[in-house]
Amino acid sequence: MPFNYRKKQTTRKRSNLDLSVIKNALDDIDQGKSIRGVALEYGIDRNTLRNYLRDRSKLTKISEQGSQFKTSMIFTIEEEKALVEYLIACSKMNYGLTRQATMQLAYEYATMNSKKVPDCWTSNNCAGKDWFRGFMTRNPELSLRTPEATSLSRSTSFNRKNVTDFFENLKEVREKYQFEAHNIYNCDETGCTTVQECPKVIASKHKYASSRTSYFS
Questions:
Q1: Residues 100 and 164 grouped into a single domain
Q2: 136-195, pLDDT tens digit by residue?
Q3: Strand runs labelled E in the chain
Q4: Measured at the alpha carbon of residue 9, what is the angle toward residues 5 and 10, in degrees to the nearest 5?
Q5: From what superkingdom does this record's organism come (predicted)?
Q6: Which residue segment(s) compose the domain that 24 sits in?
Q7: Same domain assignment for residues 28 and 114
Q8: Is residue 80 within 8 Å of 197, Cβ to Cβ?
Q9: Is the dihedral of CA 135, 137, 139, 140 positive or negative?
Q10: Is the pTM of this model over 0.70?
């Protein structure tokens, strides 16, 4: 079953059920009241009451996840939030994750937390495309962005000490050999790039995607 669930078009409006209301309704039924009468009194569908009577463990699940928790969700809201924070942190450190890498990470994350996953996750060693689309929809602060490509040497070498040493050496050489401006050539534009082409990575929405020195695909 795909995770991008489409709500059925129906005129029937379902309201969120309060946990205390359900418990009170079940207590009244235990005291001998009819399901029909309790359903009318509390405004709860009779089939819903029957479901909770057959399996009261659902009440525990509601108290832990909330009434908006969908049974098809793999991770809890808190777990997905932690995953979002990790993806944003990776993009800020120039190691943004691609869509495929994120799907693989989600599978490993679910496995480490002993989550029940679909069979296709296990066979492919990664989450499904439907899960990824749903994940991006549930977390609109994320977006697939194309970052600026940056070589690894530039990223690791461009710091205060190296830049200071470069200009000190340049000053020393110019003073020693008395180079004029016409003796200095700029040879960095050779047309041979050492920077790999970057695929789209997950980064924070409405913000610059940052540079990228490496990626996991």
A1: yes
A2: 999 999 998 887 666 666 666 778 888 899 899 989 988 898 888 888 777 665 566 666
A3: 142-145, 148-149, 201-204, 211-212
A4: 125
A5: Eukaryota
A6: 19-65
A7: no
A8: no
A9: positive
A10: no
For residue 36, which of 44, 28, 27, 46 has the smallest C-alpha distance? 46
> Are 59 and 88 part of one and the same domain?
no
Dist. CA 202–CA 139, nearest whole Å: 11
- Is 24 within the bounds of a domain? yes
Q: Is 29 helix (H, G, I), strand (E, B) or coil?
A: helix
Total Cβ atoms within 10 A of residue 216: 14
Residue where one domain finishes, among candidates 32, 65, 98: 65
What span, in angstroms and rounded, lies between the C-alpha atoms of 188 and 153? 14
Q: Are residue 107 and residue 213 in the same domain, yes or no?
A: yes
CA distances from 128 to 100, 125, 213 (A): 10, 10, 27
Which has the closest alpha carbon to 100: 79, 137, 131? 131
- Burial state string for 191-212 with b = 16 or more CB within 10 A and e = fewer than 16: eeeeeeebbebbbbeeeebbbb
Distance of alpha carbon 217 from alpha carbon 68, whole angstroms: 33
Q: 149 — phi, psi (to 5°)?
A: -70, 135
Q: How many domains would you assign to the chain?
A: 2
User: Do residues 44 and 110 share a domain?
Assistant: no
pLDDT at 204 over 90: no
CB 110 within 8 A of CB 75: yes
Say if residue 33 is in the same domain as residue 119: no
